[in-house]
Hints:
By secondary structure, the chain is α/β, with parallel strands linked by helices. The protein is 42% helix and 22% strand. Keywords: ATP-binding, Nucleotide-binding, Transport.
Amino acid sequence: MIAVENLHKHFGGFHAVDGASLSIGDGTITGLIGPNGAGKTTLFNVIAGVLKPTSGRVSMAGEDITGLPPHELFHKGLLRTFQIAHEFSSMTVRENLMVVPGAQSGETLWNAWFRRALIAQEERMLVKKADEVLEFLTIDHLADEKAGNLSGGQKKLLELGRTMMVDARIVFLDEVGAGVNRTLLNTIGDAIQRLNVERGYTFCMIEHDMDFIGRLCDPVICMAEGKVLAEGTIAQIKANEAVIEAYLGTGLKNKVQSGAAS
């Protein structure tokens, strides 16, 4: 689905992404882990068109999408969520979903004046779709609540719901579990699995909760210092010497291993 080849993103002398190459298979839930500052979010931002790469190539289903802006990638089915949710706080949860699909009839002045019946019909369809999404995510009881009043976990569910309002092919999730209580995190995990199995969504997620990653993701990719350090199953990643060192440092790693041996 996605192929990243020798990707670089530099900010002056700082190489946030430094020659990363990886692939995200169609129909997978791929985990992306690594210590803070590893370049994970910058990599997401480059793939999703928020930042232009210094060099390298990104392709989607064989098509070169390097440097395309987010709105063009959106129409190709590539979407992303953010670590901090970006809801329209003064709008209801249902309305937050209804604004997602592009090219709505009510966006043109001509239709607003002369094709009100068409706009009303389209709005009824959007309400129906939004309510189906909210029911799928088990937050239909919040449909008329102001989005700004939701908890952090509920806002993450709302962001996931936005991806369901269009024909998403691949969704990049940036720390979907950050600041979310365990009950809601399980709900989010269930929704991701269902979207993957029942609707064929491909996911790539940045996450620090290794239990959550282990439950959902195969393969798991580890980054460090802007490069891909290792790739494999969660068990292989947890046992990888280079991964342990990247997270714990050489001294602490040796101390942990010494304690385990004794």
